[in-house]
């Protein structure tokens, strides 16, 4: 039981939680809990045994967020021209989901697909169409911020003896990390 408190992953997750919540608190953005949750979730999911794995996760997760936000904004632009509670929404959300999965890489890139679809669904079902462009931009920044915090913690707490980007070029052609 005591070993759980000393586990490096437990320490890393606690540290990223502290860093994200404290930074939002000190910069007076605690009122916008949505962005805090997005940053914190990405920071926690970004904790990896090796720093290179955190960089690879950042690449796929951020790409997924950008793709999901892009199609979320397009969906909201289309939805504003439809009547309220229109039955077209039943077909539009799955259609946009299909296009998002297809352009995210399908089964070849599950981390990107999951990030893109989660972002798309959040935007289509929870975001008001009026501020969608600004929300999409803030969501991308919040994702990036959380992932950078996780990379910083991964690098500081368990630094590798190798250069942290040694295998990064090799990973550009291969998405075996997310399978």
TrEMBL record:
Which compartment or compartments is the protein found in? Membrane
Keyword set for this entry?
A: Membrane, Transmembrane, Transmembrane helix
Q: What is its main location?
A: membrane
Q: Which residues form the Integral membrane bound transporter domain?
A: 38-153
From the record, give the transmembrane residue ranges: 9-27, 62-82, 88-106, 137-157
- Record bears the keyword Transport: no
Membrane-related topology note: Multi-pass membrane protein
Q: Name one GO cellular component term.
A: membrane
Q: Which domain of life is it from?
A: Bacteria
- Name of the protein this chain belongs to: Integral membrane bound transporter domain-containing protein
The organism is Vagococcus bubulae
- Lineage, highest ranks first: Bacteria, Bacillati, Bacillota, Bacilli, Lactobacillales
């Amino acid at each position: 039981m005591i070993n759980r408190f000393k586990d490096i992953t437990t320490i890393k997750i606690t540290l990223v939680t502290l860093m994200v919540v404290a930074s939002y608190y000190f910069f007076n953005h605690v009122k916008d809990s949505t962005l805090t949750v997005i940053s914190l979730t990405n920071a926690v999911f970004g904790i990896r045994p090796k720093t290179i794995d955190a960089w690879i996760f950042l690449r796929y997760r951020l790409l997924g967020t950008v793709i999901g936000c892009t199609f979320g904004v397009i969906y909201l632009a289309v939805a504003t021209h439809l009547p309220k509670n229109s039955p077209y929404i039943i077909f539009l959300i799955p259609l946009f989901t299909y296009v998002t999965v297809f352009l995210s890489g399908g089964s070849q890139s599950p981390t990107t697909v999951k990030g893109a679809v989660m972002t798309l669904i959040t935007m289509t079902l929870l975001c008001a169409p009026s501020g969608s462009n600004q929300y999409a931009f803030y969501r991308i920044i919040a994702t990036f911020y959380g992932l950078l915090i996780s990379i910083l913690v991964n690098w500081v707490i368990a630094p590798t003896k190798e250069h942290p980007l040694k295998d990064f070029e090799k990973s550009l052609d291969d998405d075996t990390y997310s399978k």
